[in-house]
Specification:
The structure holds 2 protein chains of 2 kinds. Chain A is mainly α. Chain A has helices spanning 4-36, 43-50, 61-72, 83-114, 116-129, 134-147, 153-176, 181-189, 194-205, 207-229, 238-247, 251-282. The chains are: A mainly alpha, B alpha/beta. Chain A: It comes from Sulfitobacter delicatus.
Chain lengths: 287, 261
């Protein structure tokens, strides 16, 4: 409980800054409207106005809060206007992509650790793949997959996978190489095979690295899913909400989708952290 | 089994490491016979090649000249036949396995049936006086107990030879004394042949039937001392004149080896 106080302090400070910024950014619009009506605003009138505009440049926290309440608790989850529904759509693509990315990343790492040719040839491509802007390649993936008859969840999941396999490859290569020379010599004195060394030593040793990679990977996966929803004119998902919001200047909707995405990321990273703690504690490897 | 049967034999052994700073002559013209049931200590300053020699016996390093045989075959064949147990300086127990699980590890690798694994784990835990710790995890044990568990692990597959590379080097003196005493008892009970690397003179003299004194640059054997001490050795033997005399000779040997640099 002791570490909740610093967190709340920072949250409080951020909200203060946010309110202040809302005044500064929305004041011009409030003054323009008042000028057209031949009125002048007192300071308190100005503040009240900047915090309650319908299409503010920066919505105030309570406006976003109200929108979140309105679109989550007050709507049925099956409704197209429910943010829970959109979050679920994004989550399913994120999760599928994350699972595929983790599998791909782990397989590549195993190959890289065990095969010198793969070590020399695959790693540069893995790194190169991440230097391509995802915004540029995402529409290509969607279009190509559509041409072969794949649409809906899978193309988004593939973009998620594209982003999330990278941290898993890098982390698992390091993890699978983490046993020291003495431990490897020991295996050699027992005349252990490569497979035995892998299952009994390398894989368990890599677990701390694995979980750290998963945390980074799941966050990247969420970014991938949201980006995947943007260029396609997708009708559902947090990415679609962001896009629709920006078309119609619905800044409140954009911000509530952003907050929802952040909350989703926090929950996913938190869950992985929980599994990590329990697993590593049981393995006697907790830091 | 006849007495004085040679188990480990090195002839004109040479090993040169190629490094970025030029070649390092780790072993030069090393000749040695180790007989069955011997307890042989290798002592010398760092860089004298004592650990390298042990690693050559274990097929962890390849000699560049000469020959080593273990039980009459090459170190590689001996390793494949699991002819020796190797104890490293660090216990190297896996934190995710219990003590029992750690000892079972080589048995699993060697494909020994489950029932026999359990029985062997019990037996070797008893040998190192760790009965009752089978279900504990390594972090629940002291450093000395962890090292005993690692000795139990090296004993579990019944190799006749035990190669030990400064196994007690990281432990404090009191624990070390206790483990030395235990190791002698274990050696008497199991009749293993033991090759033991150390840089402690009292440890080498107390434990060994044969003390091999080595010196560096190039790594070579400068003296081989056959210990006249009886096999039965209480800790107090370390205050007898015989003991001190051997310790003196070892010290002389070490000093002579250092004279040329």
């Amino acid at each position: 409980m002791r570490n909740i106080i610093p967190i709340l302090t920072v949250v409080g400070l951020l909200i203060l800054v946010w309110y202040g910024a809302a005044i500064a950014l929305n004041a011009q619009w409030a003054r323009d409207v008042a000028a057209r009506a031949d009125k002048t605003l007192t300071f308190s009138e100005l503040v009240a106005d900047t915090w309650s505009q319908e299409k503010p440049k920066l919505p105030a926290p309570h406006q976003v809060g109200a929108e979140l309440w309105e679109t989550t608790v007050m709507k049925k989850v099956t409704s197209k206007r429910s943010l829970v529904y959109h979050t679920w759509v994004t989550f399913s693509a994120t999760f599928l992509g994350f699972v595929m990315g983790t599998a791909l990343g782990t397989l590549l790492a195993v190959g890289i650790v065990f095969n010198r040719t793969m070590d020399m040839s695959v790693m540069p491509w893995v790194i190169a793949s991440q230097t391509i802007p995802i915004l540029a390649i995402a529409p290509m993936i969607i279009v190509v997959l559509n041409a072969v008859g794949l649409s809906g969840l899978l193309p988004k999941a593939i973009i998620s996978m594209y982003l999330s396999f990278f941290p898993v490859v890098v982390g698992m290569v390091k993890g699978l190489r983490s046993p020291d020379q003495m431990q490897l010599d020991q295996m050699r004195t027992w005349h252990a095979s490569g497979m035995q060394t892998f299952w009994k030593l390398r894989l368990p040793s890599s677990m701390p690295y694995f979980f750290t990679s998963l945390k980074v990977g799941v966050a990247a996966s969420l970014v991938g899913a949201i980006v995947g929803e943007m260029p396609t004119g997708a009708v559902a998902g947090l990415g679609a909400r962001l896009l629709a919001g920006s078309y119609y200047g619905q800044t409140v909707q954009i911000w509530s989708a952003l907050i929802m995405a952040a909350a989703l990321a926090a929950v996913m990273v938190g869950l992985i952290g929980l599994v990590q703690r329990v697993t590593l504690k049981r393995m006697g490897m907790a830091q | 089994m006849q007495e004085n049967q040679s188990v480990i034999s090195a002839r004109n052994l040479d090993l040169t490491f190629q490094t970025n700073d030029g070649p390092i002559h780790a072993l030069k013209d090393v000749n040695l016979e180790i007989n069955k049931g011997d307890f042989v200590s290798f002592i010398g300053p760092s860089g004298c090649g004592k650990t390298t020699f042990l690693r050559v016996m274990a097929d962890l390093e390849q000699p560049t000249g000469g020959e080593v045989t273990i039980n009459g075959v090459s170190p590689e064949e001996a390793r494949r036949a699991r002819a020796y147990g190797y104890v490293f300086q660090a216990a190297g127990l896996y934190p995710w396995r219990t003590i029992g699980g750690n000892i079972r590890l080589p048995l699993e690798i060697m494909g020994i049936p489950k029932a026999e694994q359990a029985e062997r784990v019990k037996r070797v835990l008893d040998l190192v006086e760790l009965s009752g710790f089978e279900k504990k995890f390594p972090w629940q044990l002291s450093g000395g107990m962890q090292q005993r568990a690692s000795i139990a692990r090296a004993l579990s597959f019944d190799a006749d030879i035990l190669l030990m590379d400064e196994p007690f080097g990281a432990l404090d003196e009191i624990v070390r004394d206790h483990l030395n005493e235990q190791l002698l008892k274990l050696w008497a009970r199991t009749e293993k042949t033991i090759a033991f690397v150390t840089h402690s003179i009292p440890e080498a003299v107390y434990l060994s039937t044969k003390i091999v004194v080595m010196s560096p640059r190039p790594g070579r054997i400068t003296d081989v001392i056959e210990s006249p001490l009886p096999r039965e050795r209480p800790l107090e033997i370390r205050e007898t004149p015989e003991f001190l005399e051997i310790a003196h000779r070892v010290r002389e040997g070490l000093r002579a080896g250092h004279g040329d640099d």
